[in-house]
């Protein structure tokens, strides 16, 4: 019974050790532990199995020695022989069960070995496929990382150009605002100039009207001076006629003698008055002539001034029309400048938004580049893990070969055990015959 319990424990422990070894191997691979850990686990499992096999072999040797001693004692004592026969029968049955169970262990080890070969081949193919795929993935990731880095460089350059464009847009906006303010000031000056031109036109028009009135007055004065000149001529003629009449009266008074003396005196006085009247009329005519000449000169100057005033009025009118055109153009330009200022402001805002968007793009691109580099590094590490898996698959295949060798060696031991079983059965037959003969 003791041997039977030992055999049962041996079978259970051996299976547990083998299963634990392979489970630890695959669990370790999934968890990413180093390869030497798996080697240690497998070696410990195989070593434990071999140690148990060694103990089992020792037990068989001890049983063989025990059988020999029992045979010797059976030849000396019949009762002891019967008891030994019973023990040998129990031992033979136990050994038979042990051999059957060991055969079962052998079959299970063979199945495990075949499964290990299958897993090793599957793992090797998977590693090769994964290695090929990872090479392509690593190359793609490296290309993506390079493209992301290049895109980051282009994004930074585009950001710098957009920043320059934003500065220029802001500068254009500032210039447009300054131009708008300057143009408004110019419009104020033009408005003041328009008011001044209007006032000047009114003054020129009033002066022209005054010049026209003055010219009319000077014309009337010239006409009246001419009439007065005519009157002075008439006065001179009357004075001459009066002088002639006074002379005739004096002649007649002289002819009258004493009676005509008083009349002669009167005639003489009349003659003097006529001479004085003639002189005065002549002086008046000369003065009037000078005055008429002055009036004519003033009239000519007035007419010239009137012509200049008319020209000034016409020029002022043209200036006013030109100013109105300038005003209209200025108002249109003011609208255009306001529109330019509005567009420049909108453009600056849009460029600001674009710059902000490019900042986000640059940030995302840099993060993508960094992530790609990290993924590339992780892929390299994963590739190293795959290489480790490939090496472990090869090691597992070698271990399976060693396990097959152990199974073959264990098969040889099983042949020896079967021989021992036959020897024990033969011994039992001899003991039974000996016990029967002694009865």
Automatic annotation (TrEMBL):
UniProt keyword Transferase present: no
Assigned GO CC terms: membrane
SUPFAM superfamilies, A to Z: Methyl-accepting chemotaxis protein (MCP) signaling domain (SSF58104)
Transmembrane segments: 12-30, 36-61
Residue ranges the record marks as coiled coil: 88-115, 292-350
InterPro entries recorded: MCPsignal_dom
GO biological process: signal transduction
Domain (Methyl-accepting transducer): residue spans on this chain: 126-383
Alphabetically ordered keywords of this record: Coiled coil, Membrane, Transducer, Transmembrane, Transmembrane helix
Protein name as it appears in the record: Methyl-accepting transducer domain-containing protein
Lineage: Bacteria, Bacillati, Bacillota, Clostridia, Thermosediminibacterales
């Amino acid at each position: 019974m003791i041997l039977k319990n030992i055999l049962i424990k041996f079978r259970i422990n051996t299976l547990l050790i083998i299963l634990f070894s392979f489970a630890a191997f695959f669990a370790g691979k999934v968890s990413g532990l180093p390869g030497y850990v798996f080697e240690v686990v497998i070696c410990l499992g195989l070593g434990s199995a071999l140690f148990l096999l060694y103990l089992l072999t020792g037990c068989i040797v001890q049983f063989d020695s025990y059988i020999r001693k029992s045979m010797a004692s059976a030849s000396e004592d019949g009762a002891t022989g019967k008891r030994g026969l019973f023990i040998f029968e129990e031992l033979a049955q136990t050994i038979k069960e042990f051999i059957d169970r060991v055969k079962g262990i052998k079959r299970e080890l063979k199945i495990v070995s075949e499964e290990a070969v299958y897993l090793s081949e599957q793992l090797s193919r998977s590693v090769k496929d994964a290695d090929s795929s990872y090479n392509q993935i690593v190359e793609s990731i490296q290309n993506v990382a390079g493209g992301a880095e290049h895109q980051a460089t282009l994004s930074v350059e585009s950001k710098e150009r957009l920043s320059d464009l934003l500065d220029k847009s802001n500068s254009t906006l500032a210039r447009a605002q300054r131009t708008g303010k300057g143009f408004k000031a110019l419009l104020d000056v033009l408005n003041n100039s328009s008011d001044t031109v209007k006032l000047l036109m009114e003054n020129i028009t009033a002066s022209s009207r005054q010049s026209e009135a003055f010219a009319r007055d000077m014309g009337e004065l010239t006409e009246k001076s001419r009439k007065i000149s005519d009157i002075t001529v008439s006065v001179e003629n009357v004075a001459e006629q009066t002088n002639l009449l006074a002379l005739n009266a004096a002649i007649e008074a002289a002819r009258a003698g004493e009676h005509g003396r008083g009349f002669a005196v009167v005639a003489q006085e009349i003659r003097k008055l006529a001479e004085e009247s003639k002189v005065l009329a002549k002086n008046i005519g000369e003065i009037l002539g000078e005055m008429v000449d002055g009036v004519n000169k003033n009239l000519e100057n007035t007419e010239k001034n009137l012509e200049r005033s008319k020209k000034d009025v016409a020029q002022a009118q043209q200036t006013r029309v030109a100013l109105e055109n300038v005003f209209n153009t200025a108002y249109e330009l003011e609208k255009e400048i306001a529109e330019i200022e509005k567009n420049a402001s909108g453009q600056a805002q849009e460029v600001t938004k674009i710059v902000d968007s490019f900042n986000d793009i640059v940030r995302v691109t840099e993060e993508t580049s960094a992530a790609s580099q990290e993924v590339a590094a992780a892929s390299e590490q994963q590739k190293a893990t795959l290489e480790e898996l490939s090496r472990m698959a090869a090691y597992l295949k070698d271990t399976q070969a060693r396990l097959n060798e152990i199974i073959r060696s264990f098969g040889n031991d099983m042949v020896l055990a079967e021989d021992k079983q036959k020897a024990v059965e033969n011994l039992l037959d001899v003991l039974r015959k000996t016990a029967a003969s002694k009865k």
